[in-house]
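Task: fold both queries, return tokens.
Query 1:
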Amino acid sequence: MASVVLGILIVLIPLPLFAEAQTPSSLTLGSSLTANDRNSSWLSPSGEFAFGFQEMGRGAHLLAIWLEKIEDKTIVWSANGDNLAPEGSTVQLIADSRLVLMDPKGSELWFPLPTVTGAAYAAMLDTGNFVLTSQNNVDLWGTFSQSTDTILHTQQLDLGSKVRARYSEVNYSAGRFHLILQDDGISYSMPLLPSRSYQMLTWLATPLVPPSEIFNQSGQVYLTAMNGRVLTLVTSDTNPTSGFYQRAILEYDEVFREYVHPKTANSSSGWAMGWSMVSSPVPPNICTSITQNTGPGACGFNSHCTLGDDQIQRPRCRCPPGYTLLDSTNEMNGCKQDFAPQSCDGSKLETDHFALRDMLNTDWPLFDYELSEPQTEDWCRQACLADCFCAVAIFRDGNCWKKRIPLSNGRMDSSVGGKALIKVRIHNSNSKSTGNGNKNSTLIIIGSVLLSSSVFVNLLLLLITYLIYRSFRSRDYKSSRPAQINQATGTQTFTYQELQEATDGFKEELGRGAFGTLYKGVLGSDETNFVAVKVLATRTGESEKEFEREVSAIGQTNHNNLVQLLGFCNEGQHRLLVYEFMSNGSLADFLFGASRPSWYKRIDIACGVARGLSYLHADCTRHIIHCDIKPQNILLDGSLSAKISDFGLAKLLMVNQTRTTTGVRGTRGYLASEWFRNMHISSKVDIYSFGILLVELICCRKKNYEPKAKSEAQSVLVDWVYDCYHDGNIIVLVESDEEATSDMRRLRRFVMTALWCIQEDPALRPTMKKITQMLEGAVEVSVPPDPSSCISSV
């Protein structure tokens, strides 16, 4: 059978397996490793690669190969991702010349396939290949022949072999995507059912002879014939290789990428992306490329796929309004409704209990059960609300598609067009009929008594006459008053009366702060068009400035992680701001409540806040220093996505301005030291505040004195975090949090990032863009210095 080579070659001719030199450190029969806290391993002669156990969680171990000399110990091969080994398991070259992984009871958990016998010894080579070798120095099996998700240089695969993605970033079990090497080139495949597969993308080389695929020393991939003739260039980008580790990996988001990393152990540059199969030979948007007649599509059922805004543009899976993740640790596993579905009982269709939420440029193709054309959007809305089977309606170009759950092939992209109308239950709608019934009954009784009085009848007639007159006056005013849009910000202006009616007389309070009170309201006749109305405190001078500042700052911003300002009222002494409604309240309520939020949701929130701040500092028209980053000013929408709010203290910078002078602003405990030192203020004050916020997200604890702390050392959170980091004991920060303790590499990265943010010297704090990259793992985080003992006094 012809062979296929996929590797970084020193020369363009593949090296045969038997040419790999054996070493004096070969492992003889009876050699073994035990899974324990020491993570024992067998090293290659240079010490660059290690074979052994990596702890994946409390008492769970992965048999793996990793790069030993870099800080994050990147795994490049694994054996038992689908069946993690418990504490005390062993991998051993047993007496019958086999390599086997056994649990403490002696049951076999994993062994090489096909079964290998006759091995005299084993060795971990400097190529990254762990081999079993016969007495005659013939390699019988190697990890290069049983690939997982990563390809290293000099690695040789047979035609038909697969490289499989893992399930998620932290779950090494078999994922949904395979890369297959075939006679006609390379293809991606995604299994739908155990017995069938679906070809997603293919590059055809049209060769006359079976191809080889070369990943050469410059980082290029191309198809060649067996005689070495280049048939098809798959990637065109080249990268330097001298002094760098290189790996090509089929990632869990179904993209095949190459990464490079300096061999210098203390390098801060981390893994940088070289090329990816998404950048040239395949369509640039995986979300819109995968459309299945069966199965969930690129993401799980009832979710939608959208490209991230980072450099890699990794596809992200999100839930529509009214839906939550099935598994908070794996966003690709789909979503479920978080409300009772509409009843199909003909006597109570509950039409009034449901509303439609808009999602622009979103669709779930191939899963509609009814198409109506041509129709208006209003017709489409009413048709879905009246149909108990309709979970989503798609309106585009006069066409109305109805869809029932589970939804599949979800994608959000500007190329989709139109809008999705998501049916959700109105909050507390189940109790409305009972409450109104009791209320109406009471009114009837009271009315019957009062109507017995002729005096009351006369007063009632006068009241009715007045109300009719006022209604006509109000209607005439509204009809003659054009919609007013502030030209500078694009936000709508409201009258005080409109907002008073929208909030039912400022009845339902959402929160209260130093500059005003927030109330829940409804705009127009749509009972689900909720808004948050902020009534600023009546003050002279500062209130006026604060109002103008917030309107000017947030009105010109547009980012997924910033709360949207819809409009404002500037009428006489009245100053009000109208925001989008955030149904899950503040991060403070979410983080410091009775139950600990998911580690992976805290990760998502931290990255979201970082992206929002990076936009404010560098990407919006006027660079903005928020000046008051804290959990109370981070709000959560229906999908628990984080959005920065409350720009009342924001400081706008002029074009090309990087720092300013101003009085102290913000909240004690989140203030950087430069506020108190008569220093120029820059965006670095927000970075300090974010560092405190990040520490709170990691530990699920408030920043300062904790009455329930187990010791005095734990009283001040940031001091305790640094002490734990310095002592190499960061696991105590998240004790009893199994998700976090099984994600130690990311936990360490987040702690180190937080410590960089809270450095006393502003010049030492990274930019928000760099911090975002540090959190997402795009750059390596170097060792932070002691933030200084004066942190706790700020």
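Query 1 returned. Query 2:
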Amino acid sequence: MNQHPPRKKRLTQLVALAGAVASHVAWSQTAIADPTEAASIQQVEVKGLRATQKRNLAEKRDALNIVDTVSAEDVGKFPDKNVADALQRVPGISVDRTWGEGRDIFVRGTDKNLNMTQLNGQNVASAYWWKNDAQSRGFNYDILPSELVGSLDVYKSPSPDLDEGSIGGLVIVKTRKPLQFKDALTAQVSAEATYSELPEKTDPQWSGLLNWHNEARTAGVLLALSHQKRTMRRDGLENFTDSTKYTVIDENGRATPNVYASWGGGTPIFRQDRERKTVNLTLQLRPTANSDVSLNYLHSDMDMDNNNQNYLWQIGGLVEPNNVLRISRPRFITTSDGTQSVVGGTVGPVNGVSFEPIYREAYVKSRVLDLEGNLDGDGWRLHVQAGTTSAAGGSEHDRNFWFTGNTRATINLAPDTYEVQYLDMNPLDPSKLTLQGARDWIRRMDSKEDYAQGDLEFFLDRAFIKSVKFGLKFRDGEVSNRRIIGTAGPGSPGWQSFSLADLSTGPSPQISQKAATAGSLTQFAWVNDALAASKGFAMYDKAMTYAEALGEYYRIKERISAAYVKANFATGPWRGDFGVRLVRTRQTSQANQDLNGRGAYAPVSIGRSYTDALPSLNAVYELRKDLLLRGAVSRVMARNTYSDLSASTEVSGTTNAATAGNPLLKPFHANQWELGAEWYFSDASLLSATAFGKHLDTFIYTSTAIENVAGVQRPVTRPQNADNGATVNGVELQWQQAFGNGLGSIVNYTFTDAKTGALANGRKLNVVGNSRNQLNASVYYERAGFSARLSYNYRSKSYGGLNQGGQDVTSAYGQWDASASWDLTPQLALYANAVNLNNELIRTNTTDGLPVGVYENGARYSLGLRAKF
């Protein structure tokens, strides 16, 4: 469906669709005095990649907000399999690629949790599959393949009729509608094979679209399907940092008290068989010439059976009573909070090595049912929309085997350095490790929301105010989390002990030498998957005892009511909008808490509410037709993540630590401004610069303190509001130019200067999620039915949360991607994509130089055919 026609061929149905969607958005959001001008915008003809860029720039020029648009044609021309990867090409956006495919986005130097994504103007319930994933308000882009998208609009300045909840930016994903297609019957299908370099596997993927409408264009139906399989492998080296403080005693009996020590670390090899099936069904009716009703259903179902095998060294994991660690020749560094941290030495021999294979049966499901209607009257327009969305995610099983062996282990830690020597054994020898225990985690995250809204706009024949718009919106949502834990060990009925040799048939693959240093462990004896299923899982069924983790349960209910008024204005060279949005938020956080400190959990409920007034102003001054000045001021807000707002406490499955929420966290507020200039100096070309500033009244950091959790003293980490906020100032530059002869380029760069106020304890924290520099650059060529694009995406180092006396910092990341397409016939195209050509690694250390993790996802290549009828 992402065919790229030559510039002189007829308009393809797909690009015509994207043009119709985008033109309708531009018309409805722009105060245009002359209706013939609106008609001319809707009639922009799109024939190729350059023409697509031209239409995108026409939308940007005509919009009142500061907004960037990516059309379906653009999504198709990028080698992107989900929407997050496509969004990384937009100015000011960077993407989290921890799992090799974009899942969360960062906008203009703000954290992923301060941005919001909607589908057709409404929230989509999201969930996650991994046990360690926090339940955020972010959109899980894993669920939405790019093939189902009509257009993406990224709003960086708000208007009163846009939902509140984002500080960085609001992304609205629009799906197609049946009556927007030119022909009465349209069919599109694509099939491809994707080769993943690291696992050395090839997987099939296909998508299809069938659209029909009657000749009178009063009724239509669209069915879009997508089925993607992908075999993933991610190699890594890890250090499990911990905020517990120990007393270290060396070989001479000398004690060093109050010292941080990692629980341990290892060499994980993560594999996942991912299958994503998505269905989008849309029915549309136009009963009269001035009315429109559409019903949209989206269902995304993703299964992710995965296996993680990790060969582990331990430090804090070998703790003795009174938090004593015995380490020969220990080495320390001093962290930012003045506490020493262990970075080397020799431990053991008892349990000096461990091995943990994990098998997960994970899933993520999301569903949307949305009813939307529009009615145009004499000088007015009514829009109504109502629907429901739900999601579930987690794991049916998360089976873990725990093997240990006796050996001395010498550890050496430094930035991007994870080195270990097992002095009394060979890691390739499986006979040295014995099964000590097993556990199973069954986790389920649920999310749902019902919503309804109405918008009424009056078009006025006035000299200044061109229209006035009023609206009401109600949202009723709920999220929940629960986990059931199964345990088994010696003495359990049906327990059977193994050595690793009983489940192993040879060594693991060797992990990338690009991630390793001289002393890193890169190969070890591991579990054969078939033997794990035939021997290990059978033992699970007999020996496992299950019980709910009562302290981890939570349910958060949220009811949001909003009302707004907005006015569009235009006079002479000026146009824009202004108004205010009023929002009332009511939250109730329910959880089980250990009220007596002995594990006797009882339900508690904590409620609170708050009201926000969010004014905004957008203004555009047209110096001449090709040169615009833009400005915007606004007050915005974002709500805390659900995990942070929970009243629950979750104990780590690896370390002695626990994490907990804080249901009384204050939301984020920011006063922000934008000022920019846009020069449309040539056909399909733009040169622009936008300065912006955001002043946040608070941000979230974590603090750790020793607490009694079910009778055990543990370091518990909780989120807190900083006593001062943060300031993010920056500039966004865009250069887009069609050079002629089929050549063109698209370049954008964003600089942000982010600073925070002091925390309650006087320490300062870098703004979480911020990258000082972001660059997106593409060069494309199209001629005679052939097109090719080479793209580069870069973001400088970015910051995470507090960690073992310092703060996490992920190193700069730059990735090369490429795509090409060749029209074999007007209906059939051959295409090829390449992702992460340079096999860039993801590296995280603390600001004090403690390594946290380095991961390799490898490159991916695909070859496919795309047909249109």
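Both queries returned. Flag for query 2: The domain at 13-868 is CATH 2.40.170.20 (Maltoporin; Chain A).
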